[in-house]
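Changelog note: in this version the structure field was regenerated for every chain. One regenerated record is shown below for reference.
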Amino acid sequence: MLRVIFLGTGGSLPTRNRNPSAIMVNRKGELLLFDCGEGTQQQMMRARTGMMSLSSIFVSHFHADHFLGIPGLIQTMSFIGRKEPLLIYGPEGTREFTELFKAFGFFNFKYEIYGIQLKPGDIVERKDYVIRALKTEHSIPSLGYALIENPRPGRFNREKAVELGIPPGPLFAELQKGNSLEIDGKFVKPEDVMGSLRPGRTVVYSGDTRPCESILEASRDADLLIHDCSFSDEMTDWAEESGHSTAGEVAALAKEARVRRLILTHISSRYTDDVEPILNDSIKIFKNVVVAEDLMEVEVPYRPE
């Protein structure tokens, strides 16, 4: 399972129907949070995501609408008995930010919080996926992130294995794990009975940024790109000045990168009642696009074989 829950999709100013930025990824039960704007913990309650399986928070930058939800969230998890450590990743300033929590005794934490500072290109390695930090172009130091799953094993050819003299049972599993076997004096290698490696999934989150080369490269052939789209194309000058992106710019990037699906987020409050200008500017360039809404959930499937 790889599910994305849009807890907050608004721009710098929250609106009645959009919270500040917060994107949750549920990957096989492990929760990852990308940005954590004010009110994120309430959105988690509304979406019934749970909190105790949250392993990490990845902060894109230290504008208030992207991190102010962290103190309340970590204190709530302490109140409800969290014991496992929480890892908070982000650009320069992350370590100092997390140290502030430890300086205030009233938080009364029952678990450890670790601030880990990343540079563009740094990789956070997990069991069967990685998170890559990406260089972005905003008004202060900022990062985007790419979640990249490891390739999956090829399909097991049961008929071929039996033909080679492997009896059904535990030896099948050994081959699937990548171990060679000796049967009646003959060696059977995994590649004799396994198909080619199958790709994992890639999800890219831009954070706040202008369209940039590093996001483009990370998004090539990605399964899902979640990109800052603060404005429609008529606001290009202001997007350039403020370090954000317009709908047409993002759609052009997605088209060049050949992403499978594009979701636009960080929507300016000027579009509170009507996101059609953003959607129209995007869809004329890239068809498989939607404008995110708070509490929207999407599944990221494996690619067809």
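Spot check on this record: The chain has two domains: 2-152+198-299, 158-193. The chain has a mean pLDDT of 93.
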